[in-house]
Amino acid sequence: METFTYYPGCTLRTKAKELDTYARAAAEVLGISLVEPENWQCCGGAYTTATNEVSTKLSAVRTLMAGKETKGLVTVCSACHNVIKQTNYDIARNEAMAVKVQRYLGLEEAYKGETMVYHYLELLRDVVGFDKLKEKVVNPFKGKKIAAYYGCLLLRPSKALAMDNPENPVIMEDFIRAIGGTPVIYAQRNECCGGYITMEDKAQAAKRSGAVMASAEEMGADMIITACPLCLYNLKKNSGSDMPVYYFTELLAEALGLKEDGNE
Amino acid sequence: MNKNEKDWIDITSGVNVRKCMRCGKCTATCPSYAEMEYHPHQFVYMVEKGDIEPLLNSDSLYKCLTCFACVERCPRGVEPAKVVEAVRLTAVRKQGNNHLIPDQIPAMLDDDMPQQAIVTAFRKYTK
Ligand code: SF4
Ligand code: SF4
Ligand code: SF4
Ligand code: SF4
Fold first, then answer.
1. What is the ipTM of this complex?
2. Global confidence as pTM
3. How near does any CA of chain A get to the CA of B86, in Å?
4. A239 and chain B: CB distance < 8 Å anywhere?
5. Do B124 and B107 lie in a common domain?
6. Mutate to test the pocket of ligand 1, among A47, A75, A77, A82 (most ligand atoms within 8 A of CB)
7. CATH of residue A71
8. How far is the CA of A232 from the centre of ligand 4 (A)?
9. Number of domains in chain B
10. Which of A139, A216, B1, B71 to pair with A160, CA 20 to 30 A apart?
11. pLDDT digits (tens, 9 = 90+) for A4-25
12. CB spacing of B72 vs A48 below 8 angstroms
């Protein structure tokens, strides 16, 4: 069993429990031990790109430092993944920032980006392997046309996230194949759903998430999957479409036989 | 123009606005294009000229979704979203200039709204 540090993030403890519990259950079956650090803090949801701001990056650094003790740090929410990877990328390249953070946190040694960060999908691809995942599938999604929704935070900025080709990604499609489904490629898969604008401008969120769902439906999708609680919210509540939206971890758990209700 | 303000925005963004070749690709790919009075390429251009006051007072600051499409797709590596963020921070860092106050939040919520939306909005709209 390989051990990784696992950062769920605030939303996975509240509104997005399915994203979290199925990620943990599947990891166990796949031979990965996920250890949650004590007293973690919310990452803030959005990375502050400002070069002269340190305080908004501290919680991500604390989480990254916790990851040093294991093989790496695993996140599953797209937004946490984005904030933590961008922080890691910048602190590795910006000595002044590393020193400021060190002083803020009273660290003996500066943290300089040593921790490897994995999105859960990367863990499946790079540590478990999609081939091995496929062997463990007991409930394949045979004949299901599944649209992968990347949104924006999973892939961009690609310099820092380094997960996949930002304009022609394959990781989620390969995941869909591994669980026995048929991936659907559509134009809006890596365009934004509107994100937090839903708080003050429902019309804009409706326009963006509606465009995403319409694009996936046009290409014949039966369902759409995401790694982001806010994407899920927008696609479900603001898009005006009733195509089912799931977290990718729900499908993973179902394929592995870890969900009671089975394939619908 | 206020020279200090321009310098401060350049420092905050870390962007060299002079690299822009005005191709407009950032604006063409921006999901908030229709909602913005000033578009990403205009942020870059106006900061270069030091024409910052109109940007500081524009609602466009709060329309950027931080989707990083403009950052990814700019052929010159200008990273326009970082300029938008630097101008927005310049606005909200001023005392009393928060775009969102906690009292406004309850009316924006429903049972399914993820915490992520609330914390992100706070990070973008307030100091
Ligand atoms: S990104 Fe979201 S879920 Fe992740 S910790 Fe931050 S706000 Fe919470
Ligand atoms: S919620 Fe929207 S803004 Fe966030 S990752 Fe999903 S697509 Fe992007
Ligand atoms: S990051 Fe902001 S300015 Fe850039 S494309 Fe996205 S919404 Fe537009
Ligand atoms: S895409 Fe880049 S080079 Fe083109 S206008 Fe925008 S900032 Fe300038």
1. 0.92
2. 0.93
3. 6
4. no
5. yes
6. A77
7. 3.40.50
8. 31
9. 2
10. A216
11. 999 998 888 888 888 999 999 9
12. no
